[in-house]
Each structure stands twice: as C-alpha cells, then as structure tokens.
C-alpha cells in the first residue's frame, strides 16, 4: 500500500501480478519486474549513478532499486540448487581465479545467481544484455550495488544495445579472457571492433541456437580464433531448458499479455524442435487445436506421431487464432501472411532472435500501431482488421513473463562448468573449433539437481558394469545417444 501511495496517479494501468510500475522510456515492463517508480524518461546513459561504495562503473536504470533486486535474487537462489552446490564445493579451489569473463545474456535474477557464482569461483565479470526487453531493472541494480559492472536496462534502443556491449568490452586496464554469450552478438562485436582481443581470449561459451549457428559459420570459414563450447546442444540445455522451460513459459507469456483462453483455440506452431515440442505439448494439454509447420522430415514425422497435423503456413493462416514461431530462422511470418490473418490473431515469437516475424514490413503509413499494454501492440489495417503483436516479435517468455528458475539452474550450471573447462584446459586439448560439453559433465549437472526431488540413483554392480562395458561412475551413454521425449507423453 505504501508503494502504491508513492506513485503518481497518472501512470495509469499496472500489472498487479508482481509488477508495481512501468519501466523505461518506452514503458516496457516485465510482469516479473519491480521497475522504475517515476516518470523520469532520462536515458541511463545521461545519468551519473554510483553505488553505496562510490563505484560508478555501470549503467542501469535506477540504482535505488537494488533492494528489490536483492530479494529477487534470494528467491532465485532457492530454486537453483546446483549453482549453490557448485559455489560451495568449488569456492575453496577458485577454479576461475584470474578469469575475466565478459557476458551478454538475459539479465534476470537467475543470471545474477550465475554471475555471483562465477565471482565466488574467482572470476571478474562485466555484463550486458542480449535482449533489449528482458532485463529486470531491479536485478541489474542489485548487481551494480554488489560491485558488478553491468550495462543494461529494460527498453534499450538498438543504439543503446551496442553501446552497452561496447562499454563491457572497451575498458581501460581490463581485457576479457573468456566470453559467455547468448545469441552471438558479443562475439560478433569483438570480431568486428576488437579482433586483437582474441589473442588473450581462451574460449567462448554460447548457449543459443542463433549464436551456435554463427560459431559454426566462423569455424567453417576458418575465422574462429579460439575454442568454443556449444552449450545449446548439450543434453541438459536441449532437453530441459528448451523443452520443459518453454512448455511452461509459453502459457505464462500469452496469459499475462492477452488473457487468452486456450481451450478450442486454433494455434499454429512454426518449428518442431525442442522449443516447438514444449509449446505444442502445453497448448494441446490446455485444449487447443495445434498445427505444426516443419522443414525437417524427421521432426515432421515426430509431430505427426505426437498427434499434430503437419501443414504449410499458408494453408491455415486465415483460420488460426494464434501464430507462434520457434525456428531460429528469418522471415518465417512475412507480410503476405500477416495480411491474410484473421481479425484478432495473436502473433508471437519463442525463438531467440527477432527475425522470425517480419515486423519491419508492418511499419508502413497505411497501418496504425496502437499500444494497448506493456509489450502488446494492436496493428490495425485500413479496413479495421487488427492483429495482436507481442514484444514486437522478440522472445515472448523473457520479454513478457518469466521462465522457471529451476530449469535455468540447469542451463546456468552447464554454462559455469563449460567456462571452468575451457579456462583450465591444458593447451592443445581444444583447437579453434566448436565443441559439445563432455557427456560426463552433462551427467554431473543432472546429478546436482536430483536431491531437490529426494531422488535416489541406482548404482551398477561390478558385474553389471562389466556386462555393459561401462564405468560405474559414468558416462552412461555414448555421445551419439538421443534422450528423446514424446510430446504426447508430456501432456
């Protein structure tokens, strides 16, 4: 009540779920974010802020939100058991002592737990956001108050986005020797602006489909200067973050932004990879009629066997109520399809990049944009037809809602172990190429999360281990093994 009484009455509509105010100059505010509490539209780049210790090496929305952010981080810690266990087990050894990690990821409470774990393990960190809408301003404030050099706020412009990355990298007296990236933008910026930095960089850890694709392109062209770890295709990332996380967060994001009823709705999901499987399973369980588009015959066959009708987008675009992209590609939903959509059709993206929906084609004089909620736009045609565009085609779950902390614990632990592996690897173990996380590490990440469920692993006897040709302590599966899930079994 006291918080609401402090707010000017003219701010207007608020999300009552967890957010108590709107944020940023564009009023972009996550429903999970205690964001800016004033009408101050001054760009963070024009502010001079310092934390309680007098340090000003950061650029965030409002340092006064640090207490709110600290509470968010403390909540996240409770659901990230593996990182907390790793922090306790390895803190004495300091396996990242001397590491200077520059990161570009979503800046959320879960990322903060990862950053503070890396710091506890001996690393110095500088961080920017990989998405202009996903930063939790109060968490960025808590990190800045804790001494981290963070350059991010919710609602950055494109220019702000690259400026923040540059501020992380281009600093006198500090040069990174490790990169933690989500989407490849940080790696791209260093290659473009500061290629000599790679002489001291030991490795890159990348967690997204988009970023990994860029790394493989560099490797194929012979331009990859350092070893890179493909975390995205590790079992713990693919099977847990991409699948289970999206299975829950797709509903959360759609509900918070549109209050839509899923039962009976016709939905087309573009792409049936792990993200698509999770989205389809969730929507099917809620009673939606789900169509799938795919280019890969194997994924297409999986969709059919899971009970979904495989279509081309142009076959159903006039009738569907919701369009969801999760391909990692570009121009999946182009202007031709947007023109043919029914009135009120909801359009959103669950892929990392904002290239899947051709939003630029909608910024024309004959179309009217109407902001109806934070992260929700009505795009109105001359005849009165309107579509509901979420997060301007950017990542729905991290822009409009939250993601399950426990699943992010799995991904963050995988990232931490990948950094430790690359940083401490003897010279020659990894060449200038892209590598998958060793299977043994994947199994270790999974084992750290089992105690949460009071789960008890069965142990092989010596005779059984010999019969299977395995070490009793793992790894238990060959690298080519696929841990497949049936989407229908998840419903």
From TrEMBL:
Residues bound to substrate: 108, 182, 207, 237, 241
InterPro entries: Adenosylhomocyst_ase-like_sf, Adenosylhomocysteinase-like, Ado_hCys_hydrolase_NAD-bd, NAD(P)-bd_dom_sf, S-Ado-L-homoCys_hydrolase_CS
CDD domains: SAHH
A GO-annotated cellular component: cytosol
Domain S-adenosyl-L-homocysteine hydrolase NAD binding: 242-403
Biased composition (Basic residues): 7-16
UniProt KW Ribonucleoprotein keyword: no
Composition-biased stretches (Low complexity): 17-36
Cofactor: record remark: Binds 1 NAD(+) per subunit.
Cofactor: NAD(+)
Alphabetized PANTHER family for the sequence: ADENOSYLHOMOCYSTEINASE, ADENOSYLHOMOCYSTEINASE 3
Name of the protein: Adenosylhomocysteinase like 2
Biological source species: Seriola lalandi dorsalis
Taxonomy of the source species: Eukaryota, Metazoa, Chordata, Craniata, Vertebrata
């Amino acid at each position: 009540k006291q918080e609401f009484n402090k707010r000017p009455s003219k701010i207007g509509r608020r999300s009552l779920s967890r957010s108590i105010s709107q944020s940023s100059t564009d009023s972009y505010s996550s429903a999970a974010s205690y964001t800016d509490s004033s009408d101050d539209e001054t760009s963070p780049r024009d502010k001079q802020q310092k934390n309680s210790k007098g340090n000003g090496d950061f650029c965030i929305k409002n340092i006064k939100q640090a207490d709110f952010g600290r509470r968010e981080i403390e909540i996240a810690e409770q659901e990230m058991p593996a990182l907390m266990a790793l922090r306790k087990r390895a803190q004495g050894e300091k396996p990242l002592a001397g590491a200077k990690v520059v990161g570009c990821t979503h800046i959320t409470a879960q990322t903060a737990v990862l950053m503070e774990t890396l710091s506890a393990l001996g690393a110095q960190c500088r961080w920017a956001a990989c998405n202009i809408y996903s930063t939790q301003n109060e968490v960025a404030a808590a990190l800045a108050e804790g001494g981290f050099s963070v350059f991010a706020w919710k609602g950055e412009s494109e220019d702000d986005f690259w400026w923040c990355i540059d501020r992380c990298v281009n600093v006198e007296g500090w040069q990174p020797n490790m990169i933690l990236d989500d989407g490849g933008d940080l790696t791209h910026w260093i290659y473009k602006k500061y290629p000599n930095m790679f002489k001291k960089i030991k490795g890159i850890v990348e967690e997204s489909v988009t970023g990994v694709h860029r790394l493989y392109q560099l490797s194929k062209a012979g331009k990859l200067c350092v070893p890179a770890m493909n975390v995205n295709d590790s079992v713990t990332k693919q099977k847990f973050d991409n699948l289970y996380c999206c299975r829950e967060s797709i509903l959360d994001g759609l509900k918070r932004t549109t209050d839509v009823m899923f039962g009976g709705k016709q939905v087309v999901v573009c792409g049936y990879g792990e993200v698509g499987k999770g989205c389809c399973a969730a929507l099917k369980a809620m009673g939606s009629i789900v169509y799938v588009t795919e280019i890969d015959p194997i994924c297409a066959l999986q969709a059919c066997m899971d009970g979904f009708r495989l279509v081309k987008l142009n076959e159903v675009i006039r009738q569907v109520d919701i369009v969801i992209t999760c391909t990692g590609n570009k121009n999946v939903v182009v202007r031709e399809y947007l023109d043919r959509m029914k009135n009120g059709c909801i359009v959103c993206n669950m892929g990392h990049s904002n290239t899947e929906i051709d939003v630029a084609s909608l910024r024309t004089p004959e179309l009217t944009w109407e902001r109806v909620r934070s992260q929700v736009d009505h795009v109105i045609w001359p005849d009165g037809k309107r579509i509901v565009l979420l997060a301007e085609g950017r990542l729905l779950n991290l822009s409009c809602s939250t993601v399950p902390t426990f699943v992010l614990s799995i991904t963050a632990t995988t990232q931490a172990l990948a950094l430790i592996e690359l940083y401490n690897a003897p010279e020659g173990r990894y060449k200038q190429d892209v590598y998958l996380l060793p299977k043994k590490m994947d199994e270790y990440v999974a084992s750290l999360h089992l105690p949460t469920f009071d789960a008890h692993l069965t142990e092989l006897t010596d005779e059984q281990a010999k019969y299977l040709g395995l070490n009793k302590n793992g790894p238990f599966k060959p690298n080519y093994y696929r841990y497949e899930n049936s989407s229908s079994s998840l419903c």
